[in-house]
Amino acid sequence: xxxxxxxSLAAFxxxxxxxxxxxxxxxxxRRRTPGLRREEVAQRANISPTWYTWLEQGRGGAPSADxxxxxxxxxLLTEAxxxxxxxxxxGRPPEVRYTGAEGVSPRLQRLxxxxxxxxxxxxxATWDVVAWNRAAQVVLTDYSALPPGQxxxxxxxxxxxxxxxxxxxxxxxxxxxxxxxxADAARAxxxxxxxxxxxxLCSASPEFDALxxxxxxxxxxxxxxxxxxxxxxxxxxEYSGFAVDGRPDLSLTVYxxxxxxxxxxxxxxxxxxxxxxxxxx
Length: 281
Hints:
281 residues; 5 strands; alpha+beta; five-stranded antiparallel sheet
């Protein structure tokens, strides 16, 4: 008798196999049951037909991560289905595979746009800003005025004297940013993807180079940010970080003004800007 986990894996594999259309993969011939045959899945996954058959029968032992990845590819599983396959087969999720983001869904953009007094931005694991609202434009930075390749928070912090001058206690903030950046990149499996950026910043900024060598790892959950804003003056913002469901490469940060009077002034600035914010940070 197969174990519960082996039986669940077998049922999941069979269910996904029977959902696939043979004709779309170039397989022909009359069939008594829907979907691909076991040997066809094995062919697409480049594994032994006997081994795959055993898995669907709930025997043969635990498959390797490589085998599960091959099967996931052969069955055209989504990322969520692939993760479920690993949980059934190995009792753990697969290793993270970083995929760079090109943007966010319209739904997420509409959500952050509703925050008229709270700057909100979405960043990748490499800390490139890929979405923001109008409040972020007038309080933080007008990201729309920058080329996509220059919308990086690390570059702002270490290469922009203007951004640096507007931060309270830049040294401690910079240490916090570098430690959080390191943790985000590792969590998303993007260590190799950040190497070019890290090398660039180490060469351009001795301060970044020194902080990077400290190897600190920090959490960027929530806290308080203080800014010297040219129009709002010294302001204090509470921030919270959120994961974007289904997108391990993205995180959302929302900054909420501590003072309600500051919130009203942010709304006024945002309305005045009409989408053309100032270059603040």
